[in-house]
Every structure is written in structure tokens, then in C-alpha cells.
Design brief:
By secondary structure, this protein is an alpha+beta fold. Among the domains are: 71 residues, 2-Layer Sandwich (Alpha-Beta Plaits), CATH 3.30.70.330; 91 residues, RRM (RNA recognition motif) domain (Alpha-Beta Plaits, 2-Layer Sandwich); 109 residues, Alpha-Beta Plaits, CATH 3.30.70.330; 87 residues, Alpha-Beta Plaits. 24% of the residues lie in helices and 22% in strands. The chain is built from twelve helices and 26 strands. The strands form seven sheets. It has a six-stranded antiparallel beta sheet with strand order 9-10-6-8-7-11, sandwiched between helices. A five-stranded antiparallel beta sheet has the order 2-3-1-5-4, with helices on both faces. A five-stranded antiparallel beta sheet has the order 19-14-16-15-20, with helices on one face. It holds the Pfam family RRM_1.
């Protein structure tokens, strides 16, 4: 991709290690947030990958503020929340449109701010002040009177951390290269998309995208000031409504070296940069030329129209240096990646002949989009066609599931030439099940409405599974026995979230020895029907990949 790829891979590895350290900073927020997640009862609350909170957000925030922000004191003078003063403040109750600049604008009146870490999916953030006294003023003021951030009241408490761990070993705030992590990428992320988002804030020179641990990118700006302005304006923002959320840090490399301009890397100072020939001697003759005539030079086709954002957009800055309007491209189709016509059908090969069937394919692929139909191909053993809700779902499945190992075989996921799955040549698979199944009406699809889709956090496979919609009577031993009965690996670590007294279900995390084991367990046990004595409806066990890398 680029010699910047070398730098990109180095940065990616460094960022991956730093991300694990960042987990300690997010623990208190994450546990509260996930601990409150639940469904109402059994099949009646089949809502999405991450269940919703049955209690109103307003009541939650009010209770959190009263219990955590020092509303009550013990007789001996000790704070009821037992958290000692810290220069790091945990902010909760943020609106979905908040960005880093909003936090700084609202809180810098309490004192100089050193660092901000956004947690956009949780509507929370950590803010590090330069002195404990500043943090104390912030927490005390928030307990006495409303403090508004981006037009919505926020709630404050001291963090258990004394300092926010930066993603790199040194403070690179003087760097003009930013590291962007794109969370919940429902739509394709390309250099065109990132350039259109970033360039109006500050002149972009180079972009490199890498996709090993989710989707990340490095963007080099013309100056340090441009990078600082872009970080403040875009950190925590959504590229598209409700998804493709940006989490931005300063990168370690000070310059990106790009050797070709394409979907994943681009040098805007060299618009005609092409792939560099490798090796010596004469180049091999290409039978059909450089590329198909229907495939444009940059692989993108005609440019997407740009949409002006409304006046209350999260991208609009108060600074006079920033533009009043930021344009962004419409989501692009699968053809942006492969040169194929857009298709909502994926072809999956490398399937285990006796351990994979239509239902297990559904259990795995439903994490990335609705599944309409699944059909095994009789003429090509170990291969199936999966018709999904749209071409974006196919893109997500390819990004996260291509080349993973399931039951000892490596999957190959690509766009099919077919535009629909036709139920022809139905036969019996080795396990006795049908080679074709229609899932269009199942309640286990997780993207059937905008509300459902927004609760799904698109994650690559990991060694930690998030389980939910489980009856309270289920224990660690019951879940281990379930793994044994279905001949799948057992988990090595177990964590159950605290449930509210009124909750009818429980949730938690399961850690396995490897990512492959977790994938196999999810493939087999996702949507398993748990029946309890005297229960009217079974509980549907829901599994998805967790954002946590370990417990």
C-alpha cells in the first residue's frame, strides 16, 4: 500500500497496545454502561446486538448525578462515592452530537485542560485538567447547578484514574499526523470519504487506511495547527448519521510516505502517483491491459454528490477559522472496492462440510447485516450464497469475516455475481439439515429498523463475546455445560454485569483462549433457545463480539 504502510503498521501495532491500556481508563464507564444493558423478557425483546436500557435516560442520569457527584455525605465526612479527588473528570450524559471542541468550550472555564478522551458510543468522556483544583471546581459546580455541554446537561464525577493514558508513549500534540479509528463502520471508508471529511477543516496532504484491527487511518495535514483544529472538530463525530464514528488521537509518525494512489492510500501532493514497479527486468505483459474499461482510474467511478450539513450540525465550529459548512460524500457501493456491480449477495467458500449449515452461517453473518436467504451450492461443495439486506452489509461481512478460521477451515468471503438467491436444487447437508433456508421473517435479524441498527456496534471477531438476554437463573456453570453439550470450546474467564432488581435478563462477557474459539462458539450457540421450568417463552441467547480485548 505504501512505505507509509510500514509506518502505518508500526503505528497500528503501537496503537493496538495503547488501546489495551486505554481500557483501564474506560473501565468505570464501560461497566456501568454495559451493566445496565438488558432486554425485557425472552423472545419479546428481540431488539439488537446491544440491548437497550429499559429505564429512561433522564432518570438514569439524575440518579447517577445524585449518587456519584457528592449529593450525600457520610456522617464521618467521607464521600458516598468513595472516589478521591483526581485531575481526571468522568463526564456522563452527553448528547450524541458532542465533539471534543464542545467539551473544551464548556469546561475550560474551570481551568486549563490537558487532554480529552471521547467515548462516543457511551455518550461519555474523560477530561484531564492540569490541576486537581480545576477538576474539583468542575465536579462541585456540576453537583450544585446544571452544566450544559452542546446544549444538554452533563453530569460529572472524579475518575479513578489520576491521568489519562495517551495512545503513544509521548505527547504528540505537536504532530501534524492524526490517527483515526472508525467505530461502527456501517458504510465503506475510503480515502475519498476521509479527504472530504477532513480537508474542509485543514488542508490534507496524505492518507493511509489499514484494516487489521477494525478500520483505522492516518491523515497527514499541512500543519500542526490544521491537525489540532481537525482533532477538536471531528473527535467523536459521525461521518454518517449514527455510525462511522471518529475517535482521533495524535499519531507517532510525523510524515506518511505513499507510493500509490488508490482506495486505501493517497498522496494529494502527487495526484498522478501510480503503483511503483517492483523488482528488476521487464514488466510482465498484461493480457487485457491495465484495468477493465468499465473501471475508472481511481476505482471510484463518478464523484459522489456533496451534501451541506444543517446549521446545528456537530461539524459546525464556533471558531472563525473553521468553515460554516462541511460536505461529506454519500455512502459508496461495493463497486468502490471490487469493480463488480453492487450486489447484496455474498459468496462464502471454505465451509466445513459437516459442521456448517444455513443456521450457523446466519448466526455469524447476522452481526453485520440482515440475512434474507442462505443456500449451499450443490455443484461447489463447501460453498454457500448469502443474500443480505443490502450491498453495505456484504461489504461489512467481507471486511470482518474474510480469511477467518472456523472449524479448522479458512473462510473466503467475496461479492457474488448473483443479485438474489434462488431456492433451486435443494438437497440435504451432511448434518441432515436443508441446503436452503429463508431468514427474511426471523426476529433474530438485528438491522430490521433504524433503532435496531443503531444499537449494533460493528466489531471484528475477538476472543471476548458479549452475551445477553439470558435468564437470571443461568450461572457460569450452566453456560460452561452448554458449551460442553454442543462440543465447542469452553470459556476461560467469565464476567456477569450487575443487573437492576427489576431486570428479567442478565448479560456479561465470556473470554476464550483465542479468537477462533470465540468465533466457533458464536457460530454454534448464537440464538440458542434457553427454556426454564414453568417459563411461558424461551429466552434467546444473544452473542456478539465485544469491544473488550480481554477481561
Amino acid at each position: 500500500m505504501s512505505t507509509g504502510e510500514g509506518a502505518g503498521q508500526h503505528e497500528e501495532g503501537e496503537y493496538g497496545r495503547a488501546a489495551k491500556r486505554l481500557k483501564t481508563e474506560e473501565t468505570e464507564a464501560e461497566e456501568r454502561e454495559e451493566g445496565e444493558e438488558e432486554l425485557e423478557e425472552g423472545e419479546d425483546s428481540d431488539s439488537g446486538s446491544l440491548p437497550g436500557d429499559g429505564e429512561s435516560a433522564k432518570d438514569n442520569r439524575a440518579r447517577w448525578s445524585a449518587s456519584q457527584c457528592g449529593a450525600g455525605r457520610r456522617a464521618n465526612g467521607e464521600d458516598s462515592h468513595r472516589i478521591s479527588p483526581s485531575p481526571v473528570v468522568h463526564v456522563r450524559g452527553l448528547c450524541e452530537a458532542v465533539v471534543e471542541a464542545d467539551l473544551i468550550d464548556a469546561l475550560e472555564k474551570f481551568g486549563p485542560i490537558c487532554y480529552v478522551m471521547m467515548m462516543p458510543f457511551k455518550r461519555q468522556a474523560l477530561v484531564e485538567f492540569s490541576a486537581v483544583e480545576s477538576a474539583d471546581r468542575c465536579v462541585s459546580c456540576g453537583a450544585k447547578e446544571p452544566v450544559y455541554i452542546a446544549g444538554q446537561q452533563a453530569y460529572f464525577n472524579y475518575s479513578t484514574s489520576k491521568r489519562i493514558t495517551r495512545p503513544t508513549n509521548t505527547d504528540n500534540s505537536g504532530n501534524k499526523v492524526l490517527l483515526l479509528s472508525i467505530q461502527n463502520p456501517l458504510y465503506p471508508i475510503t480515502t475519498d470519504v476521509l479527504y472530504t471529511v477532513c480537508n474542509p477543516i485543514g488542508s490534507v496532504l496524505r492518507i493511509v487506511i489499514f484494516k487489521r484491527n477494525g478500520i483505522q487511518a492516518m491523515v497527514e495535514f499541512e500543519s500542526v495547527q490544521c491537525a489540532q483544529k481537525a482533532k477538536a472538530a471531528l473527535n467523536g463525530a459521525d461521518i454518517y448519521a449514527g455510525c462511522c464514528t471518529l475517535k482521533i488521537e495524535y499519531a507517532r509518525p510525523t510524515r506518511l510516505n505513499v507510493i500509490k494512489n488508490d482506495n486505501e492510500s493517497w498522496d494529494y501532493t502527487k495526484p498522478y502517483l501510480v503503483r511503483r514497479d517492483r523488482g528488476k527486468g521487464r514488466q510482465r505483459q498484461a493480457i487485457l491491459g491495465e484495468h477493465p474499461s468499465s473501471y475508472s482510474d481511481n476505482g471510484y467511478g463518478p464523484p459522489c454528490p456533496l451534501l451541506p450539513l444543517p446549521s446545528n450540525s456537530r461539524y459546525k465550529l464556533t471558531s472563525a477559522d473553521a468553515p460554516d459548512m462541511v460536505s461529506y460524500p454519500l455512502p459508496q457501493t461495493s463497486s468502490s472496492y471490487s469493480g463488480h456491480a453492487p450486489s447484496s449477495v455474498a459468496m462464502v467458500s471454505g465451509l466445513h462440510p459437516s459442521k456448517m449449515n444455513c443456521t450457523r452461517i446466519f448466526n455469524l453473518f447476522c452481526l453485520y447485516g440482515n440475512i434474507e436467504k442462505v443456500k449451499f451450492m450443490k455443484s461447489v461443495p463447501g460453498t454457500a450464497l448469502v443474500e443480505m439486506g443490502d450491498e453495505y452489509a456484504v461489504d461489512r461481512a467481507i471486511t470482518h469475516l474474510n480469511s477467518i478460521k472456523v472449524f479448522g477451515k479458512r473462510l473466503n468471503v467475496c461479492v457474488s455475481k448473483q443479485h438474489a438467491v434462488i431456492p433451486s436444487q435443494v438437497f440435504e447437508l451432511e448434518d441432515g439439515s436443508s441446503s436452503y433456508k429463508d431468514f427474511a421473517m426471523t426476529r433474530n435479524n438485528r438491522f430490521s429498523s433504524a433503532g435496531q441498527a443503531s444499537k449494533n456496534i460493528i466489531q471484528p471477531p475477538s476472543a471476548v463475546l458479549h452475551y445477553y438476554n439470558v435468564p437470571p437463573c443461568m450461572s457460569q456453570e450452566h453456560l460452561l455445560r452448554l458449551c460442553t453439550e454442543h462440543d465447542v470450546p469452553g470459556f476461560v474467564k467469565f464476567k456477569m454485569f450487575d443487573a437492576k432488581p427489576s431486570s428479567k435478563t442478565i448479560s456479561g462477557l465470556l473470554e476464550f483462549n483465542s479468537k477462533t474459539e470465540a468465533v466457533e462458539v458464536l457460530t454454534v450457540l448464537n440464538h440458542y433457545q434457553i427454556r426454564i421450568p414453568n417459563g411461558s417463552n424461551p429466552y434467546t441467547l444473544k452473542l456478539c463480539f465485544s469491544t473488550s480485548s480481554h477481561l
